[in-house]
Specification:
The protein is an alpha/beta fold. It contains 13 helices and 27 strands. The structure holds flavin-adenine dinucleotide. GO terms for molecular function: flavin adenine dinucleotide binding; oxidoreductase activity, acting on CH-OH group of donors.
């Protein structure tokens, strides 16, 4: 059941306590309670998704209310003229899958093969995780029921999983122009039938976590009514976890401290008879560990926290993918989606359509197509990389991405008609950190310092510069000659490398794909936070981490589907341990 009040919980002890009800946590909650004799408590910091209307309508992804996010901002980013940029994370059941862009991208085969190689566990290889993609995926017809032949490859999809994915359910007038531009330009813009087949390079239709007219999140799928009603599954919302607690001899941490009121308390505690499963995400998980005295001992001592276990990698290796917005004004009579947010009557009509028969412009995410592409060896050498060095996981893996939208991707487009291309650096080499903000004394609930260290390597700024050039080249295709009017802002005049780099530094943010703050590493390695079976290192017993923080490197695409895979396999590893 879903509980809003801790006093209503049936027990103070459960087989498993899952911290965080996002992507990782929801999968664990679902899979572990398949066995009716296993009981699970999920503690989620945010509210229930039930009444979070904007999280349900796919097109409202740009208007998610602040109450459903953690409202983080980064530390000043030296690579971005010291800007402090918003850093979204979901604060609601379903976690970031309730507020994200819904892109369904699995990553490349190289990405997973690198995870297998780096962790020394072949179970993470591309071939071996296919079963987990299949368990996750329920391929679903698009809302408009159009013929999808030639828009994806059915042979690489599953219809028997739990989370729904589909192609766009609403035709955009820009779609045929995008594919014509691809044909005209060729090369990196060659058509790719299905970027989820392990070899993602090319221009293809976006696949998204949408079920008909609704967002399909971890909360609506893995914690859907038929699952959350299991008598052995208990989900408490508005429950902010502060620490995990040492319970037994040695370094056994099977207690969890939390509160439903971060200002006035009380602090409560619950315990797990089998394991505590941390799934609080890339920011929440390292924060809870540091709060608990698990991290770099000298750092913890310096901020006044008694160190209990020395694990220096906690909170380090924060790896994100920056994004730069590129916008073009297009001809005034272009059929874009801008009027939906520019004219109240258009929005009203769209809402009626969505409510009445689940169709219309609101059933899609604002992005229609994506291009995943690489820089070849010569281009990489021109950017200063030594011969043979590649920042991506392998030859079928992108360095960069363009995401194309038929309008101004924002909640309030300015007057006019627009074309958006977001350029994403999916092979970033900058590494940042999550540390505690102990200004004025320790407070377990204060937002931590988040430093993704955007553009602090030469490769990152130069590679993104090349992505912006690629976006400019795309809109210069003949098909756009009488369509595109001019670029917005300084993009219009940015021509030289220096000018484009300056544009990037001044117009970037996060794709919200951070990973790496509690990385997997081989058993016995001196670095990393968890072993490949997701059990914590440092002699800690009773705790695993099952969320996006365990990726040692970013997948070269968006991170939701790879995180579902971490959690699906994680659930199997846990079941194996306990013979469930
Ligand atoms: C704005 C945005 C857009 C994105 N777009 C895409 C996209 O289009 N495609 C894609 O593939 N990926 C996308 N992502 C990334 C993707 O959503 C994440 O990689 C994925 O959700 C990570 O799963 P997780 O389980 O690690 O964390 P989350 O799903 O974020 O779950 C963590 C949960 O833990 C809870 N929590 C944290 N701290 C505590 C605490 N102390 N106590 C209790 N609960 C706590 C949080 O409230 C949250 O519910 C996006 C993310 C965001 C934020």
């Amino acid at each position: 059941a879903l509980y809003k009040n801790a006093a209503d919980l049936p027990n103070v002890s459960y087989d498993f306590i899952v911290v965080g009800g996002g992507v990782g946590g929801s999968v664990l909650a679902n899979r572990l309670t398949e066995n009716p004799s296993t009981n699970v408590l999920v503690l989620e910091g945010g509210p229930s998704n039930e009444d979070a209307f904007e999280t349900k309508v796919p097109f409202f992804v740009t208007r998610i209310p602040a109450q459903y996010t953690w409202n983080y901002t980064t530390t000043p980013q030296v690579g971005m003229h010291n800007a402090e940029v918003p850093f979204a994370r979901g604060f609601v059941l379903g976690g970031s899958s309730s507020i994200n862009g819904m892109f369904y991208t699995r990553g490349s085969s190289d990405d997973f093969d690198r995870y297998a190689e780096v962790t020394g566990d072949s179970g993470w290889s591309w071939n071996n995780v296919q079963t987990y993609f299949a368990k996750n995926e329920k391929w679903t017809p698009p809302a408009d029921g159009h013929d999808t032949t030639g828009q994806y490859d059915p042979s690489v999809h599953s219809t028997t999983g739990i989370n729904s994915y589909s192609l766009s359910g609403h035709h955009q007038a820009l779609d045929p122009l995008v594919f014509q531009a691809g044909q005209e330009l060729g090369g990196i813009f060659d058509f790719k039938l299905d970027y989820n087949d392990g070899t993602p390079l090319g221009l293809g239709w976006l696949q998204a976590a949408i079920n008909g007219s609704h967002r399909s999140s971890a909360a609506t799928s893995y914690l859907g009514p038929q699952f959350i009603s299991r008598p052995n599954l208990h989900v408490l919302v508005n429950a902010r976890v502060s620490r995990i607690l040492q319970t037994g001899a040695g370094s056994t941490f099977q207690g969890v401290e939390y509160t439903q009121d971060i200002n006035n308390g009380p602090l409560r505690s619950v315990s797990a008879t089998k394991e505590v499963l941390l799934a609080a995400g890339v920011i929440g998980t390292p924060q809870i560990l540091l709060n608990s005295g698990i991290g770099d001992s000298s750092y913890l001592s310096s901020v006044g926290i008694p160190p209990l276990v020395n694990l220096p990698s906690v909170g380090r290796n924060l790896t994100d993918q920056p994004t730069t917005g590129c916008l073009w004004n297009v001809r005034a009579d272009a059929d874009t989606f801008d009027p939906v947010f520019q004219e109240q009557n258009v929005l009203d009509d769209a809402m009626d359509e969505w409510n009445e028969d689940g169709t219309g412009p609101l059933v899609v995410t604002p992005i229609g197509e994506v291009v995943f592409f690489r820089l070849n060896e010569t281009e990489r050498a021109n950017l200063g990389l030594p011969a043979g060095v590649d920042t991506a996981a392998g030859p079928n893996t992108p360095h960069l991405e363009l995401a194309i939208g038929n309008g101004f991707v924002s909640p309030a487009p300015p007057p006019g008609r627009w074309l958006t291309i977001s350029t994403n650096l999916v092979s970033a080499t900058s590494r940042g950190s999550v540390t505690l903000d102990t200004t004025g004394g320790f407070n377990a609930f204060r937002a931590p310092h988040i430093d993704p260290a955007f553009y602090t390597t030469d490769w990152d700024i130069k590679a993104m510069r090349e992505a912006v050039k690629a976006a400019k080249r795309f809109v210069s295709a003949p098909v756009f000659q009488n369509y595109v009017v001019e670029a917005l802002g300084t993009l219009a005049t940015a021509e030289t490398d220096e000018e484009i780099e300056e544009y990037v530094r001044s117009n970037s943010g996060t794709t919200a794909h951070p990973v790496g703050t509690a990385s997997m590493s081989p058993k016995g390695a001196q670095w990393g936070v968890v072993d490949p079976d997701l059990k914590m290192k440092g002699g800690i017993k009773g705790v695993r981490i099952v969320d996006a923080s365990v990726f040692p490197y970013n997948p070269s695409m968006h991170t939701m589907a790879p995180t579902y895979v971490i959690a699906e396999r994680g659930a199997d590893l846990i079941k194996d341990t306990w013979n469930l």
